[in-house]
Amino acid sequence: MTESVGWVDSIEDAYDSGPSGQLSTTMDGTIVTINGTLLGWLDLSREMVVGRLRFADLLTVGGKLYHETHFAPLLSMEGEVSGVALELKSAAGKRMPVLVSSIVKHDDTGRPVLIRSTVFDAHIRRAYEAELLRERKAADLARGQAEADRARLQEALAVLQQALLPAALPKVPGVETAAYYHAASPDELGGDFYDVFAIDGERWGFFLGDVCGKGPAAATVTSVARYTLRAAAMHDPAAALGTLNAVLHERYVDGDPRYCTAVSGTLRSDLDTGRVVVRFASGGHPPPLLIRADGRCEFLLSQDGTLIGILASSQFPQTDVVLEPGDMLLLYTDGLTEARINGERDRYGAAAVQTLASRYAGTSPHALAEALSDVLAGFGPRLSDDTALLALGASSRPCNAL
Q1: For a disulfide at 65, which of 87, 113, 216, 271, Cβ 3.0-4.6 Å?
Q2: What was the pLDDT predicted at 134?
């Protein structure tokens, strides 16, 4: 007869002091449970974390960016992710490489209610990867390692930048669309964004905006802005900007302040007449440029809202405009109007944009966007800010006449 074991490990103790970090969060990322192992790595108390912090708050800046743009969307779509490399940041600022696996838990009705995550210490793996990297750098030094590193960084930034923009604009009945994004530098992530998308059977949504700053922090705000405006598009444009304002203000009010400017709107086509009804609202953004088919060209100086994210509550008045067949509407970020010319003494300016656009009256959004892209390319290294362009036009002839 074997002797009984004098001490039996409890489930609670196995969870709290196991070799891996464990935590559970609500669907918005708020931490509801966390084990002692992970708290020890972070040098935080349970009271400082549970109900107060989101999982993303435990990560470094780079980790937060990857979590918002890749990890969280993939988890939402797939229901689970495994072995994703991230970095924790302790209370003292120390970084800790980890591998994170998460799974979404559902209630009896199938509604997602909880995210459970396991966090593994990846110091050994990171040390191994670092040693391999050092050896590779030494081998490549004679072949211009610095230039090779820069090229890889530019490629990674370009891929991430494209991930923040639509791959292609959809075909909108009765409406012609064209967009262009000009990066001022291949070494920095920009904060400009745009999109065109279907809302329902009759309406299409669009937006274009500009986030303050550059780099990973700006890219995170860009991602938040795009997802928020798309999700809020079922409401009117003013409500969509109001939702984005509330999200940005709540998220960044206690940390590094982040804000953006944007124009958000809807399109409704009359396929019999060829007219397109545009309703839009603006938050601190340069006014859209209306180009009539007969050559008239004017900025729509409608009542403008405040910068988005600055105040807890802001109003964003709406404006309606009807595009007749052949008319166009140009949205742009201030990288175009504030581009330096004449030895950096002057700016390109809104008047120059209006003059050029009037020459393309009655043509097409594609022709106008291409002409403006040539202008931006001609500025070369003088450009200090990225530029996004979105041109929308009522088709020259009603669809039923084609």
Answers
A1: 216
A2: 76
CB 369 within 8 A of CB 179: yes
With a CB cutoff of 8 Å and minimum separation 6, the contacts of 393 are 175, 176, 177, 323, 326, 327, 328, 329, 364, 365
pTM: 0.60
Structure token pair of residue 375: 């202008």
CA 121, 125, 131: angle at the middle one, nearest 5? 140
Question: Mind listing the pLDDT tens digit for each residue in 51-80?
Answer: 999 999 999 988 888 888 888 888 988 999
Angle at 309 between CA 298 and CA 30, to 5 degrees: 145
Residue 93 phi, psi dihedral angles, 5° rounding: 90, 5
Strand duo 31-34 + 318-323: pairing: unpaired
| Residue range 158-203, pLDDT digits in tens | 545 455 678 899 999 999 999 999 887 656 667 789 999 999 989 9
Residues 6+ apart with CB under 8 A from 315: 238, 242, 305
Segment 325-353 mean pLDDT: 86
Cα torsion 301, 169, 66, 313: sign: positive
The kind and range of the H/E element at 39 are helix 36-42
**Sequence-ordered list of residues with C-beta below 8 angstroms from that of 208, at least 6 positions apart, any chain:** 192, 193, 194, 262, 263, 285, 331, 332, 333, 388, 390
Q: How far apart are CA 181 and CA 174, in angstroms?
A: 24
Phi, psi torsion values for 157, nearest 5 degrees: -65, -40
Token pair listed for 361: 């009256």
The shares of helix, strand and coil residues in the chain, as percent rounded to the nearest 5, are 35, 30, 35
Instruction: Identify the burial level of 63 via C-beta atoms within 10 angstroms of its C-beta, where 0-12 means exposed, 13-18 middle and 19 or more buried.
Output: buried
The rounded Cα 9 to chain-centroid distance in angstroms is: 46
Confidence class for position 50, pLDDT limits 50, 70, 90: very high
Residue-level length of the chain: 402
* 135 within 8 A of 167, measured Cβ to Cβ: no
d(CA 251, CA 257) in angstroms, rounded, equals: 9
Task: Quote the CA–CA distance of 262 and 191 in Å, as a whole number.
Answer: 11
Q: What HEC string does 283-299 produce?
A: ECCCCCEEECCCCCEEE
